[in-house]
From TrEMBL:
Protein name: PiggyBac transposable element-derived protein domain-containing protein
A UniProt-annotated Pfam family: DDE_Tnp_1_7
Compositionally skewed regions (Acidic residues) per UniProt: 27-42
PANTHER family: DUAL SPECIFICITY PHOSPHATASE 26 (PTHR46599:SF6), PIGGYBAC TRANSPOSABLE ELEMENT-DERIVED PROTEIN 4 (PTHR46599)
Organism: Euphydryas editha (Edith's checkerspot)
The PiggyBac transposable element-derived protein domain, residue ranges: 133-488
């Protein structure tokens, strides 16, 4: 290779031969190819002719010597071509599937990327400035439509009970009305306030001083039990026929109205969280789940989208078995993985708002990141270590220093591996962050700090619902779901 160093030469401009000397220098001048400024390459995959045969190729230092460098000729053009090839494989990490990460963050011409600027929707929310008490707030979520549905089908069930029990007390199984129905729901909510949802009804209505006077003043005990048995949310006469196409046909109308009213009366913040919630239930149900990581272990799973700051439930749906996550998605969206389908379905109301979605490692993938980017959203989340896009250098290793961080970048994504303790590594990705910023207080990457700030929305609601719950023991799963809807409002 031609040497890049040049001997310093001088010429006296007064000399009559100065022109000829300078002309000779210009003719023999060799342009230094190393001084050319090259644009950073953030392509996702490495060309086959550049990557070695080992698919697990790792970071290659820029001063790595190859055989082609040792046998280089004095031809300048050949030297430049070879140095360009070496530069293409320098400062990069490679995953098992040849996915390419740069060790240097991408160059940004603006201070704040456009996808991090929150765009509020043009739809105006209801003016709730006159909401003065919890009753008004309750009416915003549980409006007249929901109350009419519950009232109609509960009276149908009471009529069916009267027809089957000719000798029963007709007064206790009479039809109900809206006022009594609201009193019944208020009693359920009061049991959550007093944390007495698991107490016997006899104890709650005891008149020896140990009971609650407000229960006896609102509704009679026997009437409360009758309404609890008769409470219905759909036409139970043709339910078996509707189950063939919709396993959750007993409750979806109530869930849809709850979601519609929740979205109509609230404008979420910049950060939102997606996670699963388990409704404790051990009765018979076709789509009952076993989740050992949850306190209840057995129950019904709901996928939820919540505000990370206020824990407001903005969107949710009930998981009813295989392929239910892709319900309402088009054919193209249905080709995505199951976790990606769940996120796409939940995020539809906030498309194009540039909000950030925080997910755990069950949802997180580069497929999800690309899908959200195309829909005007960013994401931050943890990654499972078996993802083929993760280079080996980012996985746990014995020689890594505790508290150290390793970054990888593409044009749209940042990958970070943090070592919290020896032989451990936490791997996260973000389409919101594009630098290697470290928090000076905790010595943790800003990506991890953002994840910790926004990850707990669904878990916090699940915890509050378990502590302050109106759910009573039941063998009917639609009633268990309705109890959880009351809890989420409460």
């Amino acid at each position: 290779m031609a040497s890049s160093s040049r001997n310093k030469r001088s010429v006296n401009t007064v000399d009559e031969n100065a022109a000829s000397v300078i002309s000779d220098w210009l003719e023999n001048w060799e342009e230094d190819a190393d001084d050319e400024e090259k644009e950073e390459d953030f392509s996702s995959y490495v060309p086959n002719d550049v990557l070695s045969d080992n698919e697990d190729a790792e970071y290659i230092p820029s001063d790595h010597n190859t055989d082609s460098e040792e046998s280089a000729t004095s031809d300048v053009a050949s030297d430049v071509e070879h140095e360009t090839a070496v530069s293409d494989i320098s400062h990069y990490y490679y995953g098992k599937n040849r996915f390419k990460w740069s060790s240097n963050p991408p160059t940004r011409n603006v201070r704040t990327p456009s996808h991090n600027i929150l765009r509020l929707p043009s739809i105006r929310r209801n003016n709730n400035s006159e909401v003065l008490d919890p009753v008004d707030a309750f009416r915003l979520i549980f409006d007249d439509r929901m109350m009419e549905i519950i009232l109609h089908w509960t009276n149908k069930k009471l009529e069916d009970i009267r027809n089957k029990n000719t000798n029963a007390d007709k007064y206790m199984i009479r039809d109900t009305d809206v006022i009594e129905l609201k009193g019944f729901i208020s009693i359920l909510i009061y049991t959550s306030v007093f944390k007495s949802n698991r107490e016997s009804i006899l104890l709650l209505y005891a008149n020896d001083g140990s009971g609650r006077n407000i229960f006896r003043a609102t509704i009679a005990m026997r009437r409360f039990l009758v309404l609890l048995v008769a409470l219905r949310f759909d036409n139970f006469a043709d339910r078996e026929e509707r189950k063939r196409t919709d396993p959750a046909c007993a409750i979806p109308e109530m869930i849809n109205l709850f979601v519609e009213n929740s979205q109509k009366n609230y404008n979420p913040g910049a950060n939102m969280t997606i996670d699963e919630m388990l409704i404790a239930f051990r009765g018979r149900c076709k789509f009952k789940m076993y989740m050992p990581s949850k306190p209840a272990k057995y129950g019904l799973k709901m996928q939820c989208l919540m505000d990370s700051k206020t824990f407001y439930v903005y969107n949710t749906y009930l998981y009813t078995g295989k392929d239910s996550d892709g319900h309402t998605l088009n054919s193209e969206e249905g080709k995505a993985s199951i976790p990606t389908q769940a996120v796409i379905r939940l995020c539809k109301p906030i498309y194009g708002s540039n909000r950030n979605i925080t997910t755990d490692n069950w949802y997180s993938s580069l497929e999800l990141l690309e899908a959200l980017k195309n829909r005007g959203l960013t994401t931050v989340g943890t990654l499972k270590k078996n993802k083929r896009e993760i280079p080996l250098a980012f996985l746990p290793q014995k020689d890594k220093v505790v508290g150290s961080s390793l970054f990888g970048f593409t044009k749209d994504c940042t990958l970070v591996s943090y070592v919290p303790k020896k032989n451990k590594a936490v791997i996260l990705y973000s389409s919101m962050h594009h630098d290697n910023t470290i928090d000076t207080t905790t010595n943790k990457p800003e990506v991890i700090m953002e994840y910790n700030r926004t990850k707990g929305g669904v878990d916090a609601v699940d915890q509050k619902c378990s502590v302050y719950s109106c759910s009573r023991r039941t063998v009917r799963w639609p009633l268990a779901v309705m109890f959880r809807i009351f809890d989420m409002w409460n």
